[in-house]
């Protein structure tokens, strides 16, 4: 296990991201980037966690804001960047509206690409790890076609960067399966009784921490993995 790490997590104010923050904050220095105003975000976060408001609907603005927050914090290197924030909109049939498509791609894909690009020097100094949070939906799934496309894009981008940055920065993509968070409600989707089969967010975050520590890619963090006891993914950062 490494010593105290410097970790940035996007979308750390709810769901899987918040559970990951709760796991890591007692042992590491964590900076959360979110869309909420600081006054709304800080009460939800563990003591000592830094926060920056950087809505990813503006990928370029958010990238500058997060880089500036690192400079303000005096962080010259970054051990882990976890690009976890995500959004989606359920559609009964067809494709999300143009505005929903723009927002989905901006938050899930464009921001991830720009943040990876901008924060590479920090990660390289630490020989760090960049973790993209995708989704099993990257294989293609009805109900959220643009969301699925954004996650497929992340998958391809992660594979490209993994080759590009080999030996300098570890790159991985982690694909969670259905997880009990507020994401479905925010997306306007009621999974009904299927929700009972979804994994709890803290369990997914635990397996995700193990996957990050193992630096494996691509990784699916799903019910099957859970039934297998988390297998390789029980390590800690
Ligand atoms: N839940 C699932 O079944 C599932 C399955 C596969 C993959 N995933 C992926 O797992 C990741 C975490 O999702 P989750 O289930 O934990 O959902 P969640 O609870 O809704 O968390 C998503 C996070 O992203 C943030 N976010 C959304 N739009 C944003 C924006 N415009 N700017 C900045 N931050 C924004 C949210 O902020 P607020 O806290 O302010 O809402 C929240 O912190 C996402 O990438 C999602 O696609 C989830």
Automatic annotation (TrEMBL):
Keyword vocabulary terms for this entry: Oxidoreductase
CDD domains the UniProt entry points to: SDR_c (cd05233)
Domain of life (superkingdom): Bacteria
Sections of the chain in a coiled coil: none
Entry-linked SUPFAM superfamilies: NAD(P)-binding Rossmann-fold domains
GO molecular function, a single term: oxidoreductase activity, acting on the CH-OH group of donors, NAD or NADP as acceptor
Cited Gene3D superfamilies: NAD(P)-binding Rossmann-like Domain (3.40.50.720)
PANTHER family in the record: 3-OXOACYL-[ACYL-CARRIER-PROTEIN] REDUCTASE, SHORT-CHAIN DEHYDROGENASES/REDUCTASES FAMILY MEMBER
Recorded family membership: Belongs to the short-chain dehydrogenases/reductases (SDR) family.
Name the UniProt record assigns to this protein: SDR family NAD(P)-dependent oxidoreductase
Species this chain originates from: Roseitalea porphyridii
């Amino acid at each position: 296990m490494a010593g105290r790490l410097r970790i940035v997590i996007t979308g750390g104010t709810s769901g899987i991201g918040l559970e990951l923050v709760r796991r890591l904050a007692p042992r590491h220095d964590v900076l959360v980037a979110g869309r909420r105003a600081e006054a709304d975000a800080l009460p939800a976060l563990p003591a000592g966690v830094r926060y920056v408001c950087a809505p990813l609907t503006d990928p370029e603005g958010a990238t500058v804001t997060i880089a500036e927050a690192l400079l303000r914090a005096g962080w010259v290197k970054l051990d882990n960047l976890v690009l976890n924030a995500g959004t989606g909109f359920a559609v009964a049939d067809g494709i999300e509206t143009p505005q929903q498509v723009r927002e989905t791609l901006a938050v899930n894909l464009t921001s991830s690409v720009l943040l990876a690009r901008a924060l590479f020097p920090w990660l390289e100094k630490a020989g760090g790890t960049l973790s993209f949070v995708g989704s099993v939906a990257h294989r293609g799934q009805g109900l959220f076609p643009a969301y699925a496309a954004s996650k497929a894009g992340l998958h391809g981008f992660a594979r490209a960067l993994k080759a590009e940055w080999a030996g300098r920065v570890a790159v991985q993509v982690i694909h969670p399966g259905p997880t009990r968070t507020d994401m479905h409600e925010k997306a306007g989707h009621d999974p009904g009784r299927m929700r009972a089969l979804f994994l709890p967010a803290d369990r997914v975050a635990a397996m995700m921490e193990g996957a990050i520590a193992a630096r494996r890619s691509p990784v699916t963090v799903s019910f099957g993995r859970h039934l297998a006891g988390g297998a390789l993914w029980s390590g800690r950062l």
